[in-house]
Design a protein that fits this description.
11 helices; single chain; alpha/beta; 10 strands; two-stranded parallel sheet; 19% strand; eight-stranded mixed beta sheet; Rossmann fold
């Protein structure tokens, strides 16, 4: 009986700790100052992306071959900060003329606020409003950010013309339950990111890239999101890559994604 009480007590303490500290365990922002980031970004051809009030909400790099065929909004994962994803702009701007916008989350990289599902979704809505209405918007999102992209696509289906989801999930509760099987995660988790539910409101082209050895977001959760989506879609699987390697897949994948987006655009015009 004593052992049972001790084990029960430890379990309760762990459950309380996980509940109270869950956002610290979910979000890992970089703490680099805005000034430092601006110096580094300038060397890479990026400038601060400002909202209508003059506050920095991310980063921007225009195409080197205007006019741009599309505007791409990058939504990153739970760790680091937006400048860690500059490589997406390098790769995609080498394929076609595109203007690139990288959203920064509240509490990340010198941006004021604290990260949560609510603050990040509001930041995503604000970001979309600060992209010219005359530009076709496409989303590139990775890991945690794929849930944010699913929200944007579902909330603004007429504005978003195509999506690329890298290491996505169908719902955050399912991923968290896999990592914490002994705890009632569905009841504990505040930031649930129900990606499949949000994406169901969208009907545009969705490209999905999965890692066969993903140790953070196991492949089955991205596959569930892909299988459940009713609109035009295409899947790429990198069987030998892990979660943090997926941002640099085999040569030709990004070209195939752009071709998929363009193919659907031609069909819409017909």
């Amino acid at each position: 009986m004593s052992i049972l009480l001790i084990v029960s007590g430890l379990y309760l303490v762990c459950a309380v700790f996980l509940t109270l500290a869950q956002r610290r365990l979910m979000y890992f922002p970089c703490k680099t100052s805005q000034a430092e980031l601006e110096r580094d970004a300038a060397r890479e051809g990026f400038t601060p992306w400002l909202n209508t009030e003059g506050s920095a909400i991310g980063w921007y790099r225009a195409t080197h071959q205007p006019p741009a065929k599309r505007c791409v909004l990058v939504i990153h994962g739970n760790a680091g900060c937006a400048p860690d994803r500059f490589h997406y702009a390098y790769a995609f701007q080498a394929i076609e003329p595109m203007d690139f916008y990288l959203l920064e989350y509240p509490g990340y990289g010198g941006r004021k606020g604290k990260p949560s599902q609510g603050t990040i979704l509001r930041a995503a809505d604000e970001a979309l409003k600060n992209i010219s209405s005359g530009c076709c918007v496409f989303l590139i999102a990775e890991s945690l950010g794929t849930g944010v992209a699913a929200y944007l696509a579902g909330a603004h289906p007429d504005r978003i013309r195509g999506v690329l989801l890298i290491a996505p999930y169908n719902k955050m509760t399912a991923v968290a339950q896999r990592h914490l099987p002994l705890f009632p995660v569905r009841a504990m988790l505040r930031d649930k990111y129900p990606a499949s539910t949000w994406l169901a409101r969208y009907r545009g082209p969705v490209a999905v890239l999965l890692a066969g050895r993903d140790e953070v977001v196991p492949t089955e959760f991205g596959r569930a999101l892909f299988d459940g989506y009713a609109g035009p879609k295409k899947l790429w699987l990198e069987p030998d890559l892990g979660h943090n390697e997926l941002h640099t897949p085999r040569d030709g994948v990004w070209e195939e994604v752009v071709a998929f987006w363009n193919e659907h655009a031609v069909r819409e015009q017909k």
